[in-house]
């Protein structure tokens, strides 16, 4: 675990009616900024949720302490001093796991606000699995479901929390970066420290190398939050993935009667829901289906805890590599490869843009005859 960042102590002075992430209430702050809590709490949101009367004002912990702040370990990123020169690049943790590895040129164009890749279609089944994982783990103790995890309570909601860091300096660079992204889940332990958790439907063997940088980014955003973050500062004691790996599929023919009965009880096929009418749950049966057409089915597999070691020096070196690319006056050249006697770009998006230019379609507004 990295050295404790002392400037976090006492930084979370909170107004009345704050709504903590994870559905818990946080009492009004006592005099002097101490938090008066009842029961288990999570880092409260800065912004009030629906139905919250008063806005919450959270002083930035950076303002009073940045002058005396030093990185926890050599080479690690650290909050930039106010008024630092150089450009501040906004970077998304998810891009560290995917975009950077797939195409540094596309990463450069996005970070500079020059060109964004079109959003690729995302199969809805993965969103459904992610949501159901959050609903299952929410409020449970880690030892009850995944004993290999460090002790604590899962804090997560249907809607992920936006986290954003203050600008972070990286040794050897004048530019800074700030992290902004959506956080899946936290685990709060008895010492009021947090585990940064990401739910994945993936292969366990590929997860560690692919997602380590992403979780480090979330950790810095939680420990060094800007005023735009939805979560207050919190010390990160560990990080890791809860990976669901599907392995088999099965139908339960004996479930036909139970499915039909549930649909009828909930108001018919078209009105049936997983949790009963009026709760906003997904339909139990599609509108076109009859009860006799549907059987209960399960996608079975295994859930695995994959710890991610904290290495702030390595993360700082990675950000330095990123800034070396972003600080260049021009984007890097696309990577080319030869196949079948033809030279093609390794990135499909870059190849598409090249084909558009070569075909004279750029800015023409029409397709050729």
Protein model, in words:
This protein has 369 residues and is of the alpha+beta class. 26% of the residues lie in helices and 20% in strands. The protein has ten helices and twelve strands. It has helices spanning 62-65, 93-97, 99-102, 104-111, 124-137, 142-145, 204-223, 256-265, 312-326, 348-358; strands at residues 78-79, 88-91, 153-155, 161-164, 168-169, 176-183, 185-188, 194-201, 236-252, 296-308, 336-339, 342-345. The longest helix is centred in the middle third of the chain and has 20 residues, at 204-223. The protein is globular and about 60 Å long. The termini are far apart.
Order of helices and strands: HEEHHHHHEEEEEEHEHEHEEH
Q: Rg to the nearest angstrom?
A: 24 Å
Cα shape: globular
Q: Output the structural class.
A: alpha+beta
Strand proportion, as a percent range, falls in 15-25%
Mean of all residue-level pLDDT scores:
73
Query: How many alpha or pi helices?
Result: 10
Low-confidence stretches: 1-20, 22-42, 44-69, 268-282
What share of residues is helical? 25-40%
Distance between the termini: 63 Å
Reported for the largest beta sheet, the result is: 5 strands, mixed
Number of strands: 12
């Amino acid at each position: 675990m990295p050295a404790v960042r002392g400037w976090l102590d006492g930084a979370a002075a909170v107004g009345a009616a704050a709504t903590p992430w994870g559905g818990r209430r946080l009492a009004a702050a006592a005099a002097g900024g101490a938090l008066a809590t009842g029961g288990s709490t999570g880092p409260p949101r800065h912004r009030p949720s629906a139905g919250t009367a008063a806005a919450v004002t959270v002083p930035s912990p950076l303002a009073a302490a940045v002058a005396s702040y030093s990185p926890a370990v050599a080479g690690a990123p650290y909050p930039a001093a106010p008024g630092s020169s150089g450009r501040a690049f906004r970077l998304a943790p998810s891009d560290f796991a995917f975009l950077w590895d797939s195409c540094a040129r596309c990463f450069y164009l996005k970070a500079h606000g020059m060109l964004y890749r079109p959003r690729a279609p995302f199969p809805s089944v993965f969103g459904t699995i992610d949501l159901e994982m959050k609903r299952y783990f929410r409020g449970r103790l880690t030892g009850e479901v995944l004993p290999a995890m460090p002790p604590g309570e899962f804090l997560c909601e249907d809607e992920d929390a936006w986290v954003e860091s203050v600008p972070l300096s990286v040794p050897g660079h004048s530019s800074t970066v700030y992290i902004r992204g959506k956080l899946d889940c936290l685990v709060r332990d008895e010492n009021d420290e947090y585990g940064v958790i990401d739910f994945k439907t993936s292969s366990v063997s590929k997860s560690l190398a692919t997602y380590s940088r992403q979780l480090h980014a979330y950790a810095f955003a939680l420990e060094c939050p800007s005023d735009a973050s939805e979560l207050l500062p919190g010390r990160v004691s560990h990080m890791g993935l809860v990976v669901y790996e599907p392995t088999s599929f099965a139908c339960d023919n004996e479930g036909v009667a139970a499915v039909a009965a549930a649909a009828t009880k909930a108001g018919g096929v078209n009105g049936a829901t997983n949790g009963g009418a009026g709760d906003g749950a997904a339909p139990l049966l599609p509108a076109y289906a009859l009860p006799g057409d549907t059987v209960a089915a399960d996608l079975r597999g295994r859930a695995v805890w994959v710890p991610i070691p904290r290495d702030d020096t390595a993360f700082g070196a990675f950000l330095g590599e990123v800034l070396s690319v972003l600080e260049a006056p021009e984007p890097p050249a696309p990577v080319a490869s030869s196949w079948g006697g033809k030279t093609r770009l390794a990135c499909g998006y870059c190849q598409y843009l090249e084909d558009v230019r070569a075909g004279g379609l750029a800015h023409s507004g029409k397709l050729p005859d």
